[in-house]
Design goal:
75% helix, 150 residues, 3 helices, single chain, mainly alpha
């Protein structure tokens, strides 16, 4: 697997799990706080997915800027810049969402947290199962690039 495939897989499964969290949270929110709870859960799911999606997008953009080299300063600039942007966006959302009257605040907060936990868990599981090599070496007995293939 290459980095692009891993990122796409993480984004796909993150969307699946975030959608499931959104459906469950919307039902619970509707039972707890009627329409306001359902709207808070739907908004929380959207915010959670947006934060989830920004990470793989930053990795893909960073790889393009760094020309495929993860040690390139351009890669770090894009990924860390996106992280800083997400942090600033999160603080701004906290202040903006605190004034909403049409969404249940507790349901909104808990759905954002649940969506982010689901997304982070998905990222970890996809990375652990990616079988991406850490180093590029030829082991004894392997056919390396300089060994003849019999």
């Amino acid at each position: 697997m290459n980095v692009s495939q891993i990122v796409r897989k993480a984004l796909f499964w993150g969307a699946v799990w975030t959608t499931l969290v959104g459906v469950v949270a919307s039902v619970i929110g509707a039972l707890v706080a009627d329409l306001d709870g359902m709207l808070g859960a739907a908004l929380g799911t959207g915010i959670g997915f947006a934060f989830l999606a920004l990470t793989p997008i930053s990795i893909v953009l960073g790889l393009k800027v760094g020309k495929g080299n993860v040690l390139d300063p351009g890669f770090f600039a894009v990924v860390l810049g996106m992280w800083l942007g997400k942090f600033v966006l999160f603080i701004a959302l906290i202040f903006w969402l605190g004034d909403l009257t049409w969404a249940h605040r507790e349901t909104l907060f808990l759905t954002i947290v649940a969506s982010l936990i689901a997304g982070l868990t998905t990222d970890v599981v996809v990375m652990l199962r990616s079988r991406m090599p850490y180093v590029d070496v030829t082991l004894p007995g392997d056919k390396g690039p300089d060994q003849p293939t019999a």
